[in-house]
Amino acid sequence: MAGASCVLVVRLFALTVVQGSALAQAAEERLDVEKLLPTWRGKLLDRKGRVLAEDVASYDVAVSYPLAKGEWARERAQAAARAAAGASWRKLTSAQREEKIVQALPEWQEAQASLVKILATRAGVAQSELEHRLEGIATRIDEQAAAVYRRQIETRRTRGQALDVKPEPIREMREMHVVFRDVANDAAFEMRRLSDAFPGAIEIIDAARRQIPWASAEVEVPRAHLPRPIRTSIPLVLKMDGALDQLVGSVRNEAWKEDLERRPFEKTLEDGTIEIDLGGYRASRDTVGSRGMERQFEDELRGIRGESSRRLDSLQEERTDPIPGKDVTLSIDAQLQMRVQAALDPRTGLTSVQSWHTHSDALAIGEALPAAAVIVDVATGEVLAAASTPLPQDQERSGRASMASETASINRAIEAAYPPGSLVKPLVYLAAVTEGVLREDEAIECNGHFFKDRTDAARCWIYRERYQFTTHTKLTGGPLGVEEALARSCNIYFYTLANRLGAERLCEWYRRFGLGTLGGTIPSAQAAALVDSRHDQFSAVSLGIGQGPMTVTPLEMANAYAMLARRGSVRLPSFLAGGNKMSAMYPFAPTAVARALDGLHRVVAESYGTGNHMDYGDGTKDPIIEAPGVSIWAKTGTAEAPPLKVDRDHNGVVERTVTDADHAWCGALVGNPGDATPRYAIAVIVEHGGGGGRTAGPVMGAVIRALVSEGYLIGDGSRKVRNEVNAGAVR
Questions:
Q1: Please, which residues have CB within 8 angstroms of residue 681's CB and are 6 or more apart in sequence?
Q2: What confidence tens digit (pLDDT) does each residue in 196-245 have?
Q3: What is the CATH number of domain 416-610?
Q4: Domain ranges, ordered by start, for the chain
C-alpha cells in the first residue's frame, strides 16, 4: 500500500506541478475557439467616381485540416467510441480503446469518402481534382508545422535548453482552409447543410470576390477624320473586352514568397514568441493585388482581418471587428481610357499595317502592331489615360500571337521602354540653352553628316539616296534656328548640341526631365563620363537624337513634355486623383521655352513640318494629326527597334525576322485656342510602325479627338466642355 501510494503521489506531483501549467494551458486552449473574421478590399474608382473594381459578396467552401489530411474519419470514430463507452472509457487500456475505434472506423471512413464525392459534385470538379487540393492543403500545413518545430528547437539550442520538445499543433491545424472560392448561391446552400451533417469537416464562409464592372463595354469610334483609305462617315462600334484589364490589373488568391516576407501573418520574434499581424499574408490563402493598380495600391486597398475568441464553458466572446481596405480614387477617366483603347485597337485600322505607312516591306498589310498611348494633365501631373495593345483577350486577333502571348499582360504605356528617337530634341535644346552652350537664337548648318570625314555615320535623316543626299541647309538656303530644326527634325542640329553638352551633362538633364526614372534607362553618370573620356563621339551625339544606350517609357515621355509646358516645373506623374506637388524647378528661360513650343507648333502647322501632312502618292494629301479646333504642339519620331520575330500561323515557329522595322513615335502638347499653357501632354508609340509621322501621327489625332469627345477640350465646338461639377478636372 505504501508503494502504491508513493506511485500515485509521484504521478500526482508530475501532473500538477511538473506538467500542471502545460496541461492547464492545453485544457484552456480546448475551451477557446478562435476564428478570424474576413475583411474586404477597398474599391478602385476613376476620377469621376465610377467603380473600376470592387468586392462583392460571395461564398467560399473551407475544409478542416483533419479532412484534408484524411484523418477526419478517425477523429469522428474516436469520438463515437468514447461516447458509446461512456464512463468506462477511462478504465480501458490503450489497446482496448484502439479496438473500439477500429470497430467504429469503417462507418466514418465511408462517410468521409461520401463527403469528398458530394463536395466535388456540388463544386462541379472532378473528385481527383478535389483530392489533389486536399492533399496540397495538408502538405502545406505539415511543412509549416515542421518549420515551426525547427525554429523552436533552434531557439532552445541557442539558449542551451533541453531539446526534447514535443511538436505542438499549430494554429493552421485548428483553422478551416478554403478549397473552393466563389461558389454559386444554390451550391453554397447545399454545402451548408453538409456542414451540419459532417461536423468539423467543412464550413461555408462569407467571402468576397473582385468584380470589374468595366470588363466589357461597347465604344463608338468616329471615323470621319481617319486617313482617307479607312475614312467613312459611319462610326465603328467596337465591343471591348478587358479594355481596362492591363491598367486596373487583377488579384490572385495566393500569397507568394515575396508577400510572406514583406508582411507575414505570423512572425517569430527573437525570444521565440509569435507575433500576429492581422493584416499580414498567409500562405496560399490570401487575396493579393498581382498586376496594375491593384498591385500598386495594395497596401491601401488591403484591409485588416478581425478576430473572435469564444469560451465554450461560459459562451463569452471577445471580438475585434475587421477593418475594410480604403477606397482609392484614381486619376484615370474610365470613358476616356476606353476611347483611347479603341483608337489603338487594330480593328480601327490605325495600328495595323497600312499602305500609307513607311513600314518594312516584310510586314504584311493588315498585320497588327502593338501600340500604347498615355495622357498627362500638364497642371497636376495626373495620368488621365494609359492604354496599350494587344490586350490578353486580343491574342487570337493578332497576327503576331507569339509576341502577344508573352507581352499582352504588359501595359506598354507605363511598363515598356523604347529608344525615344527625335522626341527628345526639344529637351536637348532647353538643356543646351540652360547650360550656356547654345544661344537661344543660334542657327546651325545642316551638311548632311556630323563627322566631316564620315558620310555613312551620324547622318541627317534627309541625307539618304531616296532624297538625293540633300540637306536642310540646301532646302532652306542657310543655317537652321531651333524652330525649323524641330519642325524639320534636323539631326545635325541636335548632334551638335549633344556634342557641346557631352554625354554626362546630357544624361543628367534627361534624368531631370524624368526620363529613365519610371522604367526607362539612362546611362549613369559614371557610364556617361566613360563615354566622354573615351571620346566616343558617335555614342555621345547619338544620345542627342534619342538613340544609343537609352530607353524611355511613354509615360516618362509624356511627363517630360508636361515639364516643358510648365516651363521647368517638375511634378512626378500620378495615378491618384489630385496629382503630385511640385518637387523641383529648373530655370528655363521663358523665351527659350517659347522658341521650343514655336518649333513644335510648326511641326504640325507648317507644310515642311514632319507632322503636317501625308502624301498618298497620287497628288492627294491629308493632315497627319487632324483635330479641328485644338491647338497642337507636336513632335514625330522614328526610333531604331530590335529585330521583330513573326509567327503568323501561331504555331510557335518563327517564320521570318524583320530587321528594318523602326518604332513610330509621336509626342504632343494640346490645349484650346488662346490657352497660355498647353493643358495635356500625350505620348504615342506604335511598335515597328516605321515613320513616326505617318503611323503614330494619325493615332495621336484619334487620341486628341477622344479628349474632345469627353469634354476635356472644346475642339471645333461640336461638343461643349462638361459642367465643372461632373467633369472635375475639366477646365
A1: 375, 376, 378, 558, 559, 561, 562, 565, 667, 668, 669
A2: 788 888 888 877 788 889 888 899 999 999 999 999 999 999 999 888 98
A3: 3.40.710.10
A4: 59-212, 416-610
